[in-house]
Amino acid sequence: MNTSKRGVIGPYAFAESGIRHFSAPVKLQKIYNNAFDSCVNLSVVDLSEVNLSNFDGNNKLTIQAGAFNGCNKLNTLALPTYFEFDGSGAFANCPAI
Q1: β-pairing verdict for 7-9 and 61-64
Q2: Across the beta sheet with 7-9, what order do the strands follow?
Q3: Which residues contact 44 (CB under 8 A, 6 or more apart)?
Q4: Which among 26, 44, 66, 68 could bridge 76 via Cys, Cβ 3.0 to 4.6 Å?
Q5: Which residues contact 46 (CB under 8 A, 6 or more apart)?
Q6: Could you count the other beta carbons within 10 Å of the beta carbon of residue 5?
Q7: How many other CB atoms are there within 10 angstroms of residue 41's CB atom?
Q8: How far apart are CA 61 and CA 67, in angstroms?
Q9: 1 DSSP 8-state letter
């Protein structure tokens, strides 16, 4: 299986940053735990373009526990066709989601 061209967002990669909008690259495979933790200005997350269908094995975007925890302004979320949650609370403390 060729995984060298798949992308990941590591734990706490954008945590507590001023990011307001996030659009995922097509080959994003995994968003690790707390990657966007407490991004209080993040209002739009667009994961709809993620498409891993050209890879063998798991073709789903995996969103780990707490990935978007505390993004209290998050009010727009677009998910890809194929995704899965690894753990719970990916969108904890996001009242509009």
Answers
A1: unpaired
A2: 7-9, 28-31, 61-64, 83-86
A3: 20, 21, 22, 74, 75, 76, 77
A4: 44
A5: 21, 22, 23, 24, 76, 78
A6: 9
A7: 13
A8: 13
A9: -
DSSP H helix total and E strand total for the chain: 0, 7
Residue 77 phi/psi, 5-degree rounding, is: -135, 125
Helix boundaries (H) for the chain: none
Beta strands at 61-64 and 28-31: parallel, antiparallel or unpaired: parallel
Q: How far apart are CA 42 and CA 68, in angstroms?
A: 9
Specify whether the CB–CB gap between 69 and 34 falls below 8 A: yes
Q: Nearest 5°: CA angle at 63, between 8 and 27?
A: 40
Q: What is the pTM of this model?
A: 0.89
SS3 (DSSP) at 80: coil
pLDDT tens-digit series, residues 49-97? 998 776 656 788 999 999 999 999 999 999 998 999 999 999 999 999 9
